[in-house]
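The records we work with from here on pair a chain with its fold. These numbers are not coordinates but entries in a learned vocabulary of local backbone shapes. To see the layout at work, look at the sequence and tokens printed below.

. . .
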Amino acid sequence: CTEHILWLVWKIYILKTPELWQWINLPILKTQLIINFCSLMLLLCLIIPCYLLVGKKWAEISLPYLVVGLFTFTFFHESYLIGLFSPAAFTGYICISAISLLLFQRKIVYPLLLLSIITFVIIGWLTLNADLYYAPLFTTDLIYQYPFNSPFWVSTMGFFIVPILIMSLLLSEVLLIQWRHRKSLIEKLSQIDPLTNLHNRRSFNEHLKRLPQTKKNYVIVILDLDYFKNINDQYGHRIGDEALKQVALVLKNNVRNADIVARFGGEEFIILLEDMHLNQAIEIAERCRNAIKNIKLLIKPNCTIRLTASFGLANSAADCDTEQITHRAD
């Protein structure tokens, strides 16, 4: 719609500036004003069903073809009028094709792109054979002299090129921001256990790999919920899941912000305490153990159960690699 508005602005400006009429085919310009206005109204009206029919399968399949097809037709028509081989036309082809491939499925873009290329070749051939006028919007005096010597022609090309480039760059930036956000979200999801929102085993192992580089003392704590299988068997997996969530929350609340808490297995959790000695780690583990013991898991009204957990600790002072220290804690 913005592109159509710019075309209208340019044509109205030409009509209001008589000294430029010597370079313009006025009857075609006036006809195009009407066509541009009608096309703009049609595109504006198409915004309404695009909002109203969100989620409708048939609309999501057909509307992209209609919108892209209409814009492709009107853009190609305008390109023919100002010259298929002009800088503005070529800039438009490249930018719009690239943006279309980012916005829409290939099966929508490629057929229209192929049709445009075929049309381009046919019209180009007819123009070269003088069966069609080249750039009929401009007079032959302008086109068949060297047009780059004309300030009017150069400024016209600039007027059409700059908005296309700006809109393409802005839209590309929006799409890149969305892509970066989606990428960071996927990376985050790949590192998080979906039930407890703790780090998963893969994420924890990545932290372990970086430990030798820090050369700081660290302690690995592993804990296992006691008789957890009995909870699942007697009360169901929903209660078991709730128990895991409660334990995860308790662990996060009883360690430092810099410490890494992860779900290591089914009912097994692991904690990485960096820059800490064993005695300090034992105090933290004991605090976590007591906090888990104080969890009251509601089974039904006036019926709760308590949890307990067993802990194992190992520190890096033993001069072993991370895998061996984890094995000792286990």
